[in-house]
Amino acid sequence: MINKINAENAWVINGEAIATRKFDGTAVAIIDGELFKRFDAKKGRSIPENAISCQEADAITGHHPHWVKCDPSKSSDKFFFEGFDRLKTKTDGTYELCGPKVQGNPEKLESHFLIKHGSELLDFVSLDFDNLESFLSENDIEGIVFHHISDSRMCKLRKSDFGIKRLELEVV
Asked: What CA dihedral angle connects 131, 10, 118 and 49, to 10 degrees?
């Protein structure tokens, strides 16, 4: 762990960010009222036909995320639609699919839900290293996403960045 701010993300510490909770699931998007799931085209994976690129490919890691339309006839998309169907309004934007069959259910949910990115605001008196580490140690969340107040930049800070593990589900 290094207690040093990456110059590229200094805007967070300079008060140009809104902090939100990072949920632990899988990313989805609603685009023109239709449901899409995240697909990463790294490591030589072929990009599916009609996939929508989310950003340019990372030259170092090869990370190249896309949105791929979910198909209600595919069993692999069943839980995506369970979350989608629970939404009262299907507003375009990005969401996190969380629930019993997603990533081992670290959010401890009994059903599948789509949680809008940025929907749970966090408030910090201080953004210094020790305060952020304490917050992540004391709260059972995956992390924090900082959103720039005037553009689309984001910065993610996870528990794992501090070597902190999430609480394990209790098996009864």
From this structure: -130
Whole-prediction pTM: 0.88
The answer to which of 81-95, 113-127, 153-167 has the lowest mean pLDDT is 153-167
CB 69 within 8 A of CB 77: no
Token pair 């069943």: residue: 78
Q: What is the pLDDT of residues 158-171, one digit of tens each?
A: 999 889 987 654 44
